[in-house]
Write a structure and sequence with these properties.
Layout lengths: L4 E5 L2 H26 L11 H5 L4 E7 L2 E11 L2 E9 L8 H10 L4 E7 L3 H9 L3 E9 L2 E8 L3
Parallel strand pairs: 4-5
Antiparallel strand pairs: 1-2, 2-3, 3-4, 5-7, 6-7
């Protein structure tokens, strides 16, 4: 049986302390996405620790048995939540950490937006199951496509 996931928001001091592990998980998670979409030009895949710290994102973290299982970096502007990045450690993937992070984040604002690699079917499925609707696709770099989703206020 999988241990439950606890989700909480990080404070600024905690972000500094956890930045190395967050970056490790981020790189591992985006490497999985790069393999799924066949393109490794995803900016967070190449981000540095300084870049992560300077991103201006707020962070929710998911912990299982005291271990960091994943994180969600986000902003809220004009009551719209922007899920900037959802990262789950590969050893915790498909075990509820990502869903727990998304559900917790959705409580922070009435509307939400997110984008993911167009070929990232697991992420697309997660967002659609959480009530997001596909708005369209955008070519952000030559040959690199993302799918944009929105979840309207209830």
């Amino acid at each position: 049986m999988t241990a439950p996931v606890a989700v909480r928001e990080l404070g600024a001091a905690e972000l500094d302390a956890l930045a190395p592990r967050l970056l490790e998980i981020q790189h591992a998670a985006y490497a999985v996405e790069a393999a799924l979409i066949g393109d490794d030009r995803i900016p967070p895949l190449h981000e540095t620790e300084a870049g992560l710290r300077a991103s201006g994102l707020r962070w929710l973290v998911a912990e299982r048995s005291g271990e960091l299982a994943g994180a969600l970096g986000f902003t809220v502007d004009d009551e719209v939540l922007d899920l900037d990045r959802l990262v789950v450690a590969p050893e915790h993937a498909r075990r509820g950490a990502g869903r727990a992070l998304v559900v917790a984040a959705l409580a922070l604002a009435p509307e939400a937006v997110v984008a993911t690699g167009r070929g990232n079917e697991p992420a697309r499925g997660l967002y659609e199951s959480a009530g997001f609707v596909h708005e369209g696709d955008l070519e952000v770099l030559p040959g690199l496509w993302i799918s944009r989703f929105r979840r309207a206020a209830a």
